[in-house]
């Protein structure tokens, strides 16, 4: 499921970012460039973390950046970014973040299959470690697909 909706142009590897706000902005850029989201969706994702805390850090080393569909989603999309250096979001249990998944869901239910697939990929820390070290997009997709199929 993840590899069905994530094309190579939606994957950014080893990006240098200075803080969590820039991390969200950079991770969302492929969705913005492909017109899956409006610019205000990025602002809404950042504002949600400012208002509600780092709830988007959903597992050790993993953030799932998202906001409400009415905040600027045009169509279903997912982008993935790994960081050159891990970033702290303020979640003492799961920081620092090495991989950011940026989800754009056009309604409250369309993304549920994507979420199930994502849980299968991030359910073990060694998978995140392996994905975060890959520096080739085709290899990243191949390993992501393998993790998804073996779940």
What do you see in this structure?
- This protein is α/β, with parallel strands linked by helices and 151 residues long.
- The chain has one domain: Mannitol-specific EII, Chain A (3-Layer(aba) Sandwich).
- Helices cover 43% and strands 21% of the residues.
- It contains six helices and five strands.
- A five-stranded mixed beta sheet has the order 1-4-5-3-2.
- A hairpin with a 2-residue loop joins strand 2 and strand 3 (62-65).
- The chain is globular.
Q: What is the assembly state of the chains in this entry?
A: single chain
CATH class: Alpha Beta
Q: Going by CATH, what is the homologous superfamily?
A: Mannitol-specific EII, Chain A
What is the CATH architecture term? 3-Layer(aba) Sandwich
- Please state the CA-atom Rg, rounded to the nearest Å: 14 Å
Number of strands: 5
**CATH-defined topology:** Mannitol-specific EII, Chain A
* Terminal residue distance: 12 Å
- Individual helix count: 6
* Whole-number mean pLDDT: 92
Shape: globular
Question: How many individual domains?
Answer: 1
User: What is the H-and-E element order?
Assistant: HEHHEEEEHHH
- Uncertain regions spanning at least 5 consecutive residues: none
Strand order of the largest sheet: 1-4-5-3-2
Percentage of residues in DSSP E strands? 15-25%
Structural class: alpha/beta
Helical fraction: 40-55%
Q: How is the main sheet built?
A: 5 strands, mixed
GO molecular function, one term: kinase activity
GO cellular component, one term: cytoplasm
Subcellular location: Cytoplasm
Domain PTS EIIA type-2: 4-147
């Amino acid at each position: 499921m993840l590899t069905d909706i994530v094309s190579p142009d939606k994957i950014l590897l080893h990006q240098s970012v200075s803080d969590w706000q820039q991390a969200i902005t950079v991770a969302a850029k492929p969705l913005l460039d492909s017109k899956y989201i409006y610019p205000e969706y990025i602002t809404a994702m950042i504002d949600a973390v400012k208002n509600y805390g780092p709830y988007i850090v959903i597992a050790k080393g993993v953030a799932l950046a998202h906001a409400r569909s009415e905040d600027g989603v045009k169509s279903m999309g997912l982008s993935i970014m790994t960081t050159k250096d891990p970033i702290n979001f303020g979640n003492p249990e799961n920081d620092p973040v090495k991989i950011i998944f940026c989800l754009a869901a056009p309604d409250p239910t369309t993304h549920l299959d994507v979420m199930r697939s994502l849980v299968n990929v991030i359910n073990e820390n060694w998978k995140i470690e392996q994905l975060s070290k890959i520096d080739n997009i085709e290899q990243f997709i191949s390993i992501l697909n393998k993790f998804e199929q073996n779940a």
